[in-house]
Amino acid sequence: MAAIGSFALLLALGLSVYSFLAGIFALIRQHDESSPRIGETARRAGVMIFAAVLLASLVLVVSAFQDNFTIAYIFHHSNRALSLPYKFAVLWSGQEGSLLFWSLLLAAYGFVLRLRYKTDPRLFAYASVVIAGVQIFFLLLVNFAANPFGLLGGPLRADGSGLNPLLQYPEMVIHPPMLYLGYVGFTVPFAFALGALIMRYPGEKWIHITRRWTMVTWGFLTCGIFLGAHWAYSVLGWGGYWGWDPVENASLMPWLVGTAFLHSVMMQEKRGMLKVWNMWLVFATFWLSILGTFLTRSGIISSVHAFAQSSIGDWFAWFLAISLAVFVYFFFKNKEHLRSEHKLESLVSRESSFLFNNLLFMLACFIVLWGTWFPKISELVQGNKVTVGPPFYNRVNIPVALLLLVLTAVGPLLAWRKTSLESLKRNFFGPTMGAIAVAIFLMATPPSWGSPFGLRPWQDMTYFYSLMAISLCALVTFTVASEFYRGGKVISNKTGQGMFASMVQLTHRNTRRYGGYIVHFGVVVVIIGIAGAAFNQDKEQEMGYGDKATIGPYTLVCRSYTQDDKANYASEWAIMEVYKNGHMIDTLTPERRFYKASQQTTTLPAVRSTLADDLYLVYEGQNPDTQKPILKFHLNPLVMWIWMGVWIILAGTILALIPNAQAAVRVPAPRLVEHAAPVATGD
Amino acid sequence: MNIDAFLICALVTVGTYYYVFHLPGRLYLGPEKTRLGYLRERKEAVYENLRDLNFEYSAGKMPEADYVSLKSNLQDEAATLLAEIARLEAKAQQTPDRKR
Fold it and tell me: Which long-range contacts (CB under 8 A, 24 or more apart) does A558-561 make?
């Protein structure tokens, strides 16, 4: 089996090299008679990369299912008692496998792209060459630096070392694929952007072509990030979902820049502006995806995600340098092509709101990048590593996030080009009054109502931020609602339909815009959930039979604690009854497991989630003196809103991907003009 | 490598070689991008902007003075594009005549 896997990887590398070189040759010699046929073989070789990498991946998965411990990777990341879904997840559970998985996803994206080449054969040929170049790098890695099919020396092992216990959680079967689909997917918009730059593509059609790729990729990355947050919350047992760990930051940076690109690209489509900026944003998103992988794989920055630290960091450093050099070369060679068609006419306009939005996203990204790299920078400058923690990120990023919320509210209500004072008054009076009313209500209500009511912003800075966040969320919600209402009213007046049907029709007519508004609303819901962290409470207590503990409105009674022994792990847990207002409302069983194969311990917190708060119990172990369990209790308000918000964001993203129902005006299809001279620039 | 593995690898190699190098007689190359094509795309974008502007005005998002000014700007932009499109189309029609 290992021989087939190794062969498939070598074949994939050969195909990538051929696709890259033959593709370049065909593009350079495009006026030669033979070049279209050579270009077609390059495209077909690109298609076959997917088949070869898929074969290698299948071999690895089948080896895991067959407990083939002659393969070192399977021995180190699986064991006989591991359940089947986790055996499938072995593919991305270690360094070699995850790099193979990365190659597979890139090959899959390339496969789809190359099959859809008829949309614009020349542009797709350029993009195909760029993707083949990136593919060569990852296939070189899995062939020569981190081969997943390396064989284990010595006698055949009876069982494997087992999968990292932290990864033995249902979400870990889908979190890495989602995250990787996001990381890898940003290669596609980058490939189109670089291709368009190299060929001096006339016009913005390449953006139309890549728009869906970018949105799909962004959706996957968003989903991956929040699945990771949910996994951390459900498994790591520290009561939080985001710890500003370098690996988390590595996923956030391309997300921030990718989000900036999704906004600023509209200016290029609508007004032919920000072409240079967009080109750099696409590149930065791709580059930061690779940089994040470099951070987590090289061991250059310490992380709680202590997987996969090795010498492949050097490979990544070279790849980052080469990709930067290639991009910078073509940028300076063809930057004249990226001349803007219009200038910013007013600081109060949709364009300027996008521009400020972009600057804030970039600032947030820079803060995260700075904080992530600071230990290395301080080591180089001072000789000792200084690590910055959550307080740094929170102190700097919260004001940036609040300003972004302001722009999220303001942007959609501003007109393109310029907005008059009269227009501002007309659009903002209602939503602003609504947001102020919400703020007053939150401050006026008694704290006994529970979080986030009874906010006293003068008592604590975190309460101030929380109040600001929730009030601005209200402002965004009111502006989004007013957009739907006003648009729906226009359609309702014209068609005589009811308001709800009109709003549905409105959304169908411009899915991207109104899907985007739904995404904004999802972000609002997420931020309300995050704002709840200002009211978190926790306590730790030893709990014998019948012992009671109180946190917030809940009283917890320990009914029992026990142990169990299974094939894969031994466990101990407590049975806790939850009371509220004197009534028993639930029973929770926080658990601690000891995985036999890997000899590692992990906790499984028990969480009772409601819209108001999460009651989060962690079994920390037994007191060796009393043999009683020690439990930690967290009360985390509004956390459920975060996960609900993510579903809304995903719904909005899917909606935005659906084609518009109809165009209001049909423009005749352009006739093919064969004798017009090809243009060098689009302006 | 055992014989089964060898046969699978050989089969994959032959299949790949056949798919990559066995090309059909005619290939799809697509139309070439021209400035005229680009201008038509821009024209569509300006028309789209005009539609958006009309809709936002109907929704009461801007006063009439703003609407008239913005609409006039967009119409000027569309007129410039249409003029260049017409010029290039006329040139494209004349070129074959001259050749004849």
Answer: A558/A629, A558/A631, A559/A587, A561/A628, A561/A629
DSSP strand pairing (A554-565 vs A569-580): antiparallel
Angle (CA) A167 A168 A172, round 5°: 55
Place of tokens 């996203």: A361
Judging contacts by C-beta atoms under 8 Å, the chain A residues touching residue B100 are: none
Q: Could you tell me if residue A554 is left (phi over 0), alpha (psi between -120 and 50 degrees) or otherwise beta?
A: beta
Backbone angles phi, psi at A667, to 5 degrees: -105, 130
Which of A143, A163, A183 is the last residue before a domain boundary? A163
Contact in structure between A151 and A2 (CB atoms under 8 Å) = yes
User: Would you say A80 and A67 are in contact if contact means Cβ atoms under 8 Å apart?
Assistant: yes
Count of alpha carbons within 13 angstroms of residue A184, beta-carbon side: 24
CA-to-CA distance for A450 and A442, rounded, in angstroms? 11
Q: Which of B21, B62, B87 to mutate to test the interface with A (most CBs of A within 10 A)?
A: B62
A246 within 8 A of A301, measured Cβ to Cβ: yes
Question: Which range among A32-36, A144-148, A229-233 shows the weakest confidence by mean pLDDT?
Answer: A32-36
Kindly report, residue by residue over A82-132, the tens digit of the pLDDT: 888 888 888 888 888 989 999 999 999 999 999 998 888 889 999 999 999
DSSP classification of residue B95: H
The confidence score (pLDDT) of residue A670 equals 39
**Please, what is the average pLDDT of chain A?**
88
- The residue from A621, A640, A659 where one domain ends is A640
Closest CA of chain A from B68, distance in Å = 12
**How close A421 comes to chain B (CA, Å)?**
10
Q: How far is CA A22 from CA A29, A37, A300, A518, in A?
A: 10, 10, 37, 45
CB spacing of B88 vs A120 below 8 angstroms: no
Would the CB atoms of A673 and B95 count as touching at under 8 Å?
no
pLDDT score for B98: 52
Answer whether residue A39 is part of any domain: yes
Report the sign of the C-alpha dihedral through residues A569, A575, A580, A586, in that order: positive
The whole domain housing A557 covers 535-640
For an interface test with A, give the residue of B4, B12, B97 to mutate (most A CBs within 10 A): B12
> Taking residues A529-541, what's their average pLDDT?
92
- Contact yes or no for B12 and A11 at CB 8 A: yes
**A37 belongs to a structural domain:** yes
Retrieve residue A91's tokens: 């593919």
User: What per-residue confidence (pLDDT) applies to A613?
Assistant: 93
- Structural domain count, chain A: 2
Q: Which residues of A touch B43 (CB under 8 A)?
A: 667
The whole-number average pLDDT for the span A300-325 is 77
Closest to B34 in 3D by CA, of A588, A307, A677: A677
Residue predicted with more confidence, A470 or A662: A470
A606 in any annotated domain: yes
Residue B79 Cα, gap to closest chain A Cα (Å) = 15
| Beta carbons of B35 and A677 less than 8 Å apart | yes
* Gap between the Cα atoms of A109 and A289, Å rounded: 16
In a domain, A121, yes or no: yes
Over residues A245-260, the pLDDT tens digits come to 888 899 999 999 999 9
**CB–CB of A670 and B33 under 8 A?**
no
- Percentage above 90 pLDDT, chain A: 57
ipTM associated with this complex = 0.81
Scanning B5-34 for CB atoms below 8 A from A yields 5, 8-9, 12-13, 16, 19-21, 23, 27-34
Domain coordinates in residue numbering, chain B: 3-99
Q: What is the pLDDT of residues A38-93, one digit of tens each?
A: 999 999 999 999 999 999 999 999 999 999 898 999 998 888 888 888 888 888 88
